[in-house]
Amino acid sequence: MAHNSSTELLSDLAANFHHPLWSEIELMLLSNDSSLWPQLLQHQALIAVALFRLENEFLFLGQLVKYNFSVEIIDYSDWLNAVNACQKFLIDLLGGSDAQDMVRLYIKQRIELIVKTMPSLTTMMAWVEYQMWGELPEPVMQVALAKSKNAYSLVENLWQGEDSLLQTKLLRTHSSVELWPSSKLFTKALSAFYKKSPNNIQHVLDTSNHNPRETLFWPLFHDYKCTVVNLPVLLGLWSMSPVPMRWWSQHPERQGCIQQLLKFNPIWFQLAFNQGGKIALVLDFHDELNRA
């Protein structure tokens, strides 16, 4: 695949499950050829599609881990488009009256493997299953309950009280750790997200800054723990919004920071990312995401 045309070809590939170049990607995986990975890793939509198009998704998942790709920078619309395209491709391929049920089972098995390997995507994939087939996994039920009672209950679970998720899953478990990953990436990312957000999201973020009861983030922005605490929540919000996540894929060092936080405390990172995604859904960050 010629380097000067690879970007255009990868875009075509992401948009077409029938593209003949999928066989080339399969061969690249099997031969452990790394020449195309720098381009692949900058194309989130293609990564999402590949996980449902390639025959050996387990090997592809392993390569994503090897190259420190952060699946958290793939947004909801890319995942939904990938699953939609996969379903249409396989139903057309199989034909017959049982095709729809068989394809649904196949895709759900793929989703199960993806979530098992990358638990950050639990809420993301639950919402995909809800939108595709009307299913109601636990994260979807949690969103529905919060919308019906208290839109900020999921936020309160994160930050408020001695039994908050912050206290029980991060601060207490790392109380004796003196060296935390520290950077200014959270505040930079929040600023970038705010600038690209539509008015309804900017309003929520403005309210978060001025109303302690509706603050989306741990407010100690100057504390050395700030990025560890807040960045996964922001990523979860961002991934469920209409704001493109190219800000992350364009700079490998930003993904490197995500990987550093994941290694520091994977349980907190995955939990906070999922919580951020659910909060975004409850607060209607993306109206299209909340249509049955």
A few lines on this structure:
The protein is mainly alpha-helical and 292 residues long. It has helices at 6-15, 22-30, 37-40, 44-53, 57-66, 76-94, 99-117, 122-133, 138-149, 153-159, 165-171, 185-196, 199-210, 226-239, 246-249, 252-264, 266-282.
Rg computed from alpha carbons, rounded to a whole number of angstroms: 19 Å
Label the structural class: mainly alpha
What's the oligomerization state? Answer: single chain
Task: Summarize the amount of helix as a percent range.
Answer: 55-70%
- Cα(first) to Cα(last) distance is 41 Å
Share of residues in strands: under 5%
What count of domains describes the coordinates?
Answer: 2
Query: What is the average of the pLDDT values?
Result: 91
How can the largest sheet be summarized? none
- Report low-confidence residues grouped into runs of 5 or more: 288-292
> How many individual helices?
17
Shape: globular
Number of strands: 0
The secondary-structure element order is: HHHHHHHHHHHHHHHHH
Structure characteristics:
292 residues; mainly alpha; 2 domains; 17 helices; 65% helix; globular
Give an overview in words.
It is a single chain. With 292 residues, the chain is mainly alpha-helical. It folds into 2 domains: 3-117, no CATH class; 138-290, no CATH class. 65% of the residues lie in helices and 0% in strands. It is built from 17 helices and no strands. The protein has helices spanning 6-15, 22-30, 37-40, 44-53, 57-66, 76-94, 99-117, 122-133, 138-149, 153-159, 165-171, 185-196, 199-210, 226-239, 246-249, 252-264, 266-282. Helix 6 packs across helix 8 (122-133) and helix 12 (185-196) packs parallel to helix 14 (226-239). The chain is globular. Mean pLDDT is 91; it is low at 288-292.
